[in-house]
Write the structure tokens for this entry.
Amino acid sequence: MATCDADLLGKVLRDGKIVFEIREEFYKGLKVSLEEAIDLVEQSTIVNMVGHRIVRKAVEKGLIHPEAIIKISGVPHAQIIKM
């Protein structure tokens, strides 16, 4: 599952040599509420998320440890892999 804050869709984040494209082909899907997105995250085995709102909510719910978050141009990015 890939999820991002709606306002980031289509943007490119640049940080030194890192170029992170928030491509519609990868991230665009159903537009859902933050709570609905978190429900989907909880059900998924692999998650890629980017954005202040979604990552903050995942931390609040205990789905991501704060130290597992990286920031690209100040925007949080995290991944979850459940084994």
